[in-house]
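INFO batch 0412 | record 1 of 1 | parsing
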Amino acid sequence: MLATLAVPVKNESARDYTLQLADSSENIAAIRKLVAEQLAPKVTDVDLKGEYPGAFLRALGAAGGFRGAMAPEFGGNGLGLKHVIEVMEEAAKVCLSTGFLTWCQTACARYLQMSENQALKAAFLPRIASGEILVGTGLSNTVKSCDQIEDYRLSAKRVDGGYVMNGVLPWVSNLGPTHYFATGCPVEGETRGEEGLVFVLVDCQLPGFKLVDCAHFVALDGTRTLACHFKDSFVADAMVLSHPATSRAYVSRIKPGMILAQMGMGLGLIEACIGMMKQSNKTHAHVNQFLDDQADVLDTALQEARAATYALAETISTDPQAEAKVVLDILKLRLAGGELSLKAANAAMLHMGAKGYLQKSPAQRRLREAYFIAIVTPATKHLRREIARIESCAASCAAA
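INFO prediction complete | emitting tokens
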């Protein structure tokens, strides 16, 4: 494989990087084939019937689709966040529900990877990597509460050997009776804010915990999004990702990568929308040319967004401490990704015309899916608020 390179490999680090690129390319090709054979035929059922693509998620894990989220010593492939995003793109090109579930699985895996609980990582990460265990992320309320957008819906009390938790999380995705998910909440008696939080991995069979069906959505209803009820639920220290003493540092480690990884959903959806526009132009370019948003312009924007996403992912994977330094860039990119998703989906719908308005048309599905990208935490309004806050603080510091 190295013999085909136009430029000779001069040192071991370059050789390692070249081998990583080859491994990533081969794995993504295998993922693309898996998506075409096992996911594409089920998209309508996932969308209109709310069918949960659990079998595909397990197959995706077996094919190595989740392994970029964890270190090699815990079952990872060493390809990092960029590989996570690439896999997400491949799923989202066909089905955003599955792209989002891929994000849930890998986001939770990264929360574990960045925990200091070595025993928990060793016990769970290899099984999450393989798809044996499916996991969700219940940090929407935690993130919004940290940013002072809403109140915490859970609380924890420190007891001997762990924490007792109470409250209700209304919407957590990728759940089921045998699943796990990560969440975080304030601990009674601890400092308010990010310094006083506990983060835990919750077993959905935990005594005092139950899953409850919630309202149906206009899209992504096949994502097993359920309400999580805690009533004096005891979570042992063995399942703790971060205690209050380290919670602020833990939030700063997990949050930027969590947000950046969501770009995989947007990049995949945008590419699919551009594909529909180009397909429509084969017969209707003479009239589509009068629409505001054209495929070539959107494609240029997509390539720029993808390059920026991959560059930031490589930065984070190479230097985890860099996440806090590039958080503003990540927020701005994620905002642009949501806005471009809406623009591309709207353009695809208009290009397709009446054909796009059919119940089983991918065009109208993509439009519904694009709104999800714009409202999932962090939503467009959340992102704009945080960007304004950070820039205002930076301006104040510069003026002082």
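INFO post-check: The two ends are 56 Å apart (CA to CA).
INFO record closed
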